[in-house]
Amino acid sequence: MPEAVLLSGSLGLGHEMMMRSCASVLERSGWRTRSLDSMALLGPRRGAVAQRLFGSLVAMPGIYDGLHFAHLRTGSGLAEYMSRRATSRLVPALAADLDRRPADLVLSVFATGAAAAAKLKAEAPGRRTVVLSTDVTMHRIWVCEGTDLFLVTSPAAAASVRRFLPRAAVSVIPPPVRAAFYAAPPQAEARQALGIPPGDPCLLLIDSGWGVGPLVESVAALAQAGVHVLAVAGRQREIEARLRELARTQPRVRPFGYTDRVPELMSAADVVLALPGANTCGEARVVGRRLLLLDVMPGHWRDNLQHELELGAADVCGPSAAGVTASALALLGKTSRPVSSAGLAPRWEPAFIAALRQIGVDLRPDHHADAPIPGAAVAGAAIPVAAYAGGPHSTGPHHSRPQ
User: In the list 82, 163, 211, 271, which could disulfide-bond 236, CB 3.0-4.6 Å?
Assistant: First the structure.
């Protein structure tokens, strides 16, 4: 049985959701998968230091913006130094793990993991190395010689890869979305299960693992204005506790911690309030919900915000409870209910499968070995960029590699 290692990172929840989506396709195709946390591979002490450092940078938007836009995006000497430092510990740890338990494929959804896997390519030429990122700009640490295939979700991201590796193999695919979102119930059914009246305004707020912004204050203001708020705190236990305390006096607030009910909650809502992460945005587009994006995160989140707005069905609000409330009420006020659950986003799996076939990884989830995969492109076929330009109306991958 072939084996794949999925390299993630314990910063936010987006990497974990992408990893789960990929693992599902691989396992249904007869592969054995295991996940490794790039931060944990640094060791308990260094991993904890790296997490605290990143959190501190995010909390200083001006500093993080400068680092991202002036250095990581451009590939400056500082970016090269950061890449060397990050991989100096990670490469030996990953090599030792792969020596103990070899893998046929290493798929990285985290930048330093991608850099480490690429550096080990020469030691195992037959092992395929793939990078998957939903960021609209791939910065320098993501892009290294030794990667067989880069999977990105927009032509802009594909161009950012070729900035550093002009002959890189790049495929543009839809953002990974877990199967449960394609099977989300109709809005009326979801609302009945949650006890939300069919004609009332309802908003889903999702914290993607960062705990930033005026989340609790915004929930309180919206509930006071007559909005039913489904508030998902994820793994932010302090925020979850505050939301549960608020719900004791405000019946329109329904708090959740880390939950697998997000497809149902998204279906019940009229609008989804979230950070501009491609995973949550992709899920909302699959379910067919309009997005209200919180402009509070620096660096690559600013790139991603502009991209999501360009895709459409999205608005932006400022980082204050008053700004969030005003924008949300404006959107909810022009929403007709029930909202259709027929999203326009294409399924991502056929494009993912077709792209991997280009490098000799043949996945056939839920099918016999000799059965065709509906919607998958023929291996080796070049697909025009217009086939999937990152928008909600398009299908199929775009594959770019040296001729």
Answer: 211
